Amino acid sequence: MAITKVKSLKGEITVPGDKSISHRGVMFGAISEGITELTGFLDGADCRSTISCFRAMGIDISQENDHVIIHGKGLHGLNAPTNMLDVGNSGTTTRLISGILSGQPFVSALNGDASIQKRPMGRIITPLSEMGAYIRSLKDNGCAPLEMGGKPLKAIHYNSPVASAQVKSCVLLAGLYADGVTSVSEPVISRNHSELMLSGFGAKIKTEGLTASIEGFPKLVGQKIDVPGDISSAAYFIVAGLICPNADLLIKNVNTNPTRAGIIKVAQAMGGNIELLNERIIGGEPVADIHVTTSKLNGCEISGEIIPTLIDEIPVIAVMAACADGTTIIKDAAELKVKESDRIATVTENLKAMGCDITPTDDGMIINGGKLHSTIVNTYMDHRIAMAFAIAGLVADGETTFDNEGCCCISYPNFFNVLQQIVNK
Ligand code: S3P
């Protein structure tokens, strides 16, 4: 794949289904009674990992592209898997399924790829152990492979030191298997799809400020869910539409849940021409069409409470900052270091290679906008690095290529085809 500078960018596109909602639809459907039907499901490698884990525990799941039917067997319907579950590259699968597996009467184990085996699991081992779960990092390094389950759980209140929807969801899911009320507080609000969706499946769950609480042993009932487009995938095209010359793009049917939509606020703060059209609610989630056109952007500061609402978009936001006038400072984002790659390091390395003035910090980066030139992008097999730098390639002098762009299949298998349809060289 080679990306060169574009003359214009025009079109109307849809992006694949939301990854967080797709994972949760499969998981919650599997432990509910009756059928759950997902349309608009993200048919990417991560969500396929979730499907295969539940199939390995006896759940009948049929999938045809973005249409998935899950024959749920209720809270107590999972079978002990005969082999180690394979979570692939998916942190969401790992941390959420661990909440469910910890509550099972059987012991099971999971493992994933090289990236997963480096990601911190102490953040779920701590609260699950407090709940009385047996859970252990098999290499004693706080990472996968993990083994868990076989012991009864007790309800706790957990004060999470990190704003992480994966930690919050893990504890809430374990709470389904504990008598009484389990609650979890986080320092800053993280994405709330678990809370919204579990309530739709019939769980008794409530949110007050930064605390979510759930009652144990509810009867969950299968749902029909129309998964909206993923704002994390829309983000690449939002930025493309703002930084490319002669751009006019409409990105249809995007989830704009405020716990996810920080990139829209940042684009506005930087002076971007971005508008939300046809705003509506689908299945409890806000959805809109996003219209972007070429903009003159200025740097800004991105820090504090907004960070969890745009954490996955920071690589492409950094590209936007590299194309803006002036300085952009990203702070309070140390979580970037423990994503699919260390994204402070991988964004810095690639933007530097494109001629950008960028300084990494302990919890973010400082970027001075300017002109970019091409490079061979080192993706570190991180899907979001590959796609963010494909967007940088649209405005860079020369031909931008990749060590391996195949990693896009994690969240957006069709990304380069869609990009090709809208560019005009
Ligand atoms: C996710 C939560 C986020 C995000 C990840 C998906 C989820 O991780 O980075 O891509 O679906 O819950 P953290 O909650 O650990 O920040």
Description:
With 425 residues, the chain is an alpha/beta fold. The chain has two domains: 2-16 and 228-424, Enolpyruvate transferase domain (UDP-n-acetylglucosamine1-carboxyvinyl-transferase, Chain, Alpha-beta prism), CATH 3.65.10.10; 19-226, Enolpyruvate transferase domain (UDP-n-acetylglucosamine1-carboxyvinyl-transferase, Chain). The protein is 29% helix and 27% strand. The chain has helices spanning 19-30, 45-55, 91-102, 122-130, 165-175, 193-200, 231-243, 262-269, 314-322, 343-353, 383-393, 415-422, and strands at residues 8-14, 33-39, 60-64, 67-73, 85-86, 107-111, 135-137, 146-149, 153-154, 157-159, 178-179, 181-185, 205-208, 211-215, 224-226, 247-255, 273-282, 285-293, 301-302, 327-330, 357-361, 364-368, 376-377, 401-402, 423-424. A five-stranded mixed sheet has the order 17-18-16-1-25. Strands 3-4-2-15 form a four-stranded mixed sheet, with helices on one face. The model has no long low-confidence stretch (mean pLDDT 98). Bound molecules: shikimate-3-phosphate. Residues 20, 92, 164-166, 169, 190-191, 311-312, 335 line the site of shikimate-3-phosphate. Shikimate-3-phosphate binds at residues 20, 92, 164-166, 169, 190-191, 311-312, 335.
Summarize the structure.
The chain contains 12 helices and 25 strands. The protein has helices at 19-30, 45-55, 91-102, 122-130, 165-175, 193-200, 231-243, 262-269, 314-322, 343-353, 383-393, 415-422, and strands spanning 8-14, 33-39, 60-64, 67-73, 85-86, 107-111, 135-137, 146-149, 153-154, 157-159, 178-179, 181-185, 205-208, 211-215, 224-226, 247-255, 273-282, 285-293, 301-302, 327-330, 357-361, 364-368, 376-377, 401-402, 423-424.
